[in-house]
Each structure stands twice: as C-alpha cells, then as structure tokens.
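Pasting as-is:
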Amino acid sequence: MSSIAPREKPQKSMQVMLKQDPGGSLPMDLGLLEGTFIMPTGRRKPSIFSEPRRRWQLELYRARQRFIELRMGWSYKYLTKQKPRPKMGLRRVGPTAQALYRQMYTAFAE
C-alpha cells in the first residue's frame, strides 16, 4: 500500500488576500518569531479617542516589553564576569533584523 497524501488546494497570494480583506483583519506580522511584539502603525493602530482601552493596553504592553529588554541588556552587560564589558549596539538591532528578514524572504522566494 502506498500512502499518498491528498492534493492540497493552492493558497492565494498575499496581494489577493489583502484585496479581498477590506476590513484589515489579516495579520501584518507574518514570519515573525513567536513572542515578539510589533506595535500596529497607521490605520491599524487603535485610536486614542475611539478605543482608549485597547490603545492603553498596547502602550502598556510595549512599555513593559521595553523595560524587560533593557533590564536583560543591563544585566548582561554589567553582571557578566567578562572583561572588557561587551558593547550592546542597540541602535544596530533594527536595521540588522530588517536586512536579515529581507535576505531570508528573498531566499525563500527563489
């Protein structure tokens, strides 16, 4: 007996799905690592006047995550026994991550 899987239905491209979703309910953070948080921007960000509770929750979560990241960075830099102390390079994280994601997605596209 051969176990042949049934043929899967082809998936729609991202552009087609975005055109069919006028409400903007599709997540825009596809491909991110689990547990990361990206603050919504533009029209996806809840208004402070129409949805203040949701906006406050997002801002509070972002501040809490930033505090945790800073605390972990501080403990890594100052509580390690390594001398000279490591340089953090926090300003390089964003552009480096962006370049890595671009490289990863172009490799998947090929």
